[in-house]
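The data layer described in this paper is built around a simple, fixed record for each protein. Because each token names a local backbone shape, the row as a whole describes the fold. We quote a single record here, exactly as it is kept in our systems:

***
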Amino acid sequence: MKKITSTNQKIIIDLFNKILISYIPKNALLKCCRFCIFRRFINTRKDRKIIKNISYKEIDSSSIFSSIVNELINYLKNDKQLVDDKFRRKVFIVDKKTLSIDVSYCLAVPDCPFCSTLPKDSMNLAEKNGKCILNNLNQAGMPYRFRSSRYWDKILENTVLDKNLGIITTLLDYKEKYFNNAVAILPLLDGRDEPGTGRTGRLESSRGIALLEAMERYAGFYPKGKETTVYESYNQLLKKVSKKHILSIDKYILNQDSIIPKKSNIFNFDKKQKYHWIWGYDIVNRCPRLIPETLAYYGMTLKNSTYKKEIIAYEISNGCSTGSSLLEASYYSLLEVIERDSFLTYWYMPHRIDKIDIINLKDKKLQSDINIFFEEYPDFALSFYNISNDTRVPVILCTIKRKKVKKDKMNFMCAASANFNVYKAMFNSLHEITSIFNGLQKKFTSNINSIKAKYTNLNNIEKMEDHSLAYGYYQNLKYINFENNVARMVTPEALTTKLDEEGLCQQFKFIINTFRKQNREVIIVDQTTEEMNKINLFCTKVLVSGLLPMTFGAKNARISNLRKEDITNYFKENITVKYLPHPFP
């Protein structure tokens, strides 16, 4: 039910060297209240971890600033645009040191305890989303991206980017000699900054992709579009809900099921313990499913530290993506799940692969980017491999390796991409590397002594960047043996199927039918936030039963014997599991 304010509300927040001023007229929607403005402002501060629970006060009437405040309040009372077309409330920000006055616009906090109007999560809502995706699958000519990254650049810059009250506080351009990238900074409640990165090489496109990736992270940490309602143990749920509507936990590879040796596992699923559950939709079996909230969202402890006891597996933004529809977002989420599984199954279970011939490529844009790469990095060899597996979607691995090994420099890096267009997958994987490599190389060089000490033992790998830095170290190059498993040299055209030309819907159906034959579940979780809904941007997370999820940290790997059997049967090879941490960036 929408909340209405029955009286005029002056919002005056005197905090540090700023005064935040806004106004809510009588009988107006109480959307974006005092608490929302306070919380958004605090979250943009560098010291937010320390000050997030600070109390604030209204300005004293005797203050020398009171006349400025009263004048601005009177102005707002007569303002016809207190809430703009993007549902943001106008806020004046007075700098007490300089007396400058800025105008910002603030979005309501989705889970605000005072003015939130989020719908309750339910089976019906999940079923509605699932049917929407299925209906869209029957549309002819569905584009891969309904709206371009340049479109989202403009929309998101004008909606969520603001240094004082924004969801995203900063958008940085990195202009290299050849490869231009962008980074959007998402401030988190725990004081960290989460980057979203655009890696197209074209600054205009990179900015939009960076903003979209930051919004994807924002959506993936904890629910901001629905209110979670189910809190039960698995055993109790069985008494209340049909078993077909509960996620088959045993089909998913958790840390407790992983076959890695000497693991120090702190994550377990207990069927007697209470968990929060949210609704997703199994697009293969066309059935709503309850999923542990910490499996669908990877930052629940940011919302409440008590969720720590509910974490049942190490999770990241694996299988999350944004799009202009639930179908579009789900398609790219699926491709990411497949990309990571293909990389991990090859790394942990080495099998034969193809090497791609990059001489005389027919795609002139890719050929140009490869030529530019050799100009920028003349000391490196560049290779592309086909590492596709039984998911039957082309997955391309790109590697760069220093021709003459240097002990104090980064010597190796790799990245992968899944796409039915093999040239597009090659382009994406190459740009993933070029966007990160320079920054990693600088970090490697400045920390060479600690790197030598740490990465002589690969079990010391803990954080995401450790994986790339460890395999950039010359002594670990002996573990990089892609060339040893090359069975044949192929052209990109040899890997291309007719599905490349048949469009998003046909490709989506192909993937779903493949997983149906393999008896896999494909669970789509709608992570779309309230703010995204208002601009028709959608975010989903996809979980596929049995596929290897991406993890970071040596002890967090999740590998199953069943996946080993799948790969053994598909390649018809005698496969041995390699328990080394992966080099994925």
The chain has a mean pLDDT of 93.
